[in-house]
Write a structure and sequence with these properties.
- It is found in: Mitochondrion inner membrane.
- The protein has 14 helices and two strands, in the order H-E-H-H-H-H-H-H-H-E-H-H-H-H-H-H.
- By secondary structure, the chain is mostly helical.
- It has two domains: about 240 residues, Cytochrome Bc1 Complex, Chain C, CATH 1.20.810; about 110 residues, Helix Hairpins (Orthogonal Bundle), CATH 1.10.287.
- The chain has a two-stranded antiparallel sheet.
- Helix 10 packs across helix 13 and helix 13 packs antiparallel against helix 14.
- It is globular.
Amino acid sequence: MSHQHMLMLFNLLPVGSNISTWWNFGSMLLSCSMIQILTGFFLAIHYTANINLAFSSIIHISRDVPYGWIMQNTHAIGASMFFICIYIHIARGLYYGSYLNKEVWLSGTTLLIILMATAFFGYVLPWGQMSFWAATVITNLLTAIPYLGTTLTTWLWGGFSINDPTLTRFFALHFILPFTIISLSSIHILLLHSEGSSNPLGTNSDIDKIPFHPYHSYKDILMLTTMIALLFMIMSFFPNTFNDPENFSKANPLVTPQHIKPEWYFLFAYGILRSIPNKLGGALALIMSIAILFTTPFTHTSYVRSMTFRPFMQLMFWTFTTTFIIITWAATKPVEPPFTEIGQLASIMYFTFFMINPLFGMTENKISNFT
């Protein structure tokens, strides 16, 4: 495709003139997925999905394969960058009422679930201590399902414990799911362009639109450059920022780490899981912590779309953001007071945000009807 054809295509995508930087995270996520797929492909060439060789193959990639350490670090740190961008992208959608583009929001939430599954399978692959034990804890949750639980767990493991067949399955799934992500991302983007982007004011932007290029494409390039610079800065100077020290030891089924915890981007869901003493209740709360996002387009009752003009909901949004951080922090701590109580209180606050949204909307509508 020539440069002129590209410019024509960009000009066919008019966007609202008041779109802010928060709208750049969609294109950054697309770039993140490309980085992950490219680095993942090169890692897969050298990786060995065998419990005796997996850990050694990661060391081999880092030490012996030319530029392998760059591929391995970019892939590992890139996953964290991916989740930072996706959480900001979701937060922007909640704040500015972007979820009212129902098809776009529902396809995006489905993408989040598939992405989390892919990341979980990927975290098991290095076969370090934390990889093994995090996989043991999470897959064991299936046993909480009445009647079918044990059968499902045995089927997923490919045996009666996490072993060679489990690692092979997780590697296959980690390799295949990104193709589903590419397909769903394409649908997500197509739906977005058929619906049109929202904007910070939540108003109809049809009356004031500008060409995507150069007005928005340059902002995309700037944000993308910033993200890649940050990624390489972390990779070069702080490569172990997101790593757990336990994962530098090979998986040993006979030695349980003192504090089992997943990667930081799963900690909010893990914190909600462990704040409920009942196993089935915890598993359901874990699923609901993500699935509740599907409800937001249907529970919005306010006449006003964006929180820009909703001060009470702004307060609730920032309380929710703080709650998310508190759950993440509490989940890194031992299961003992006061962290258990903090986690439980924060979990209640987390779900309260989604329940209070329709009530606040109706209250605001009543106030606006009086004035």
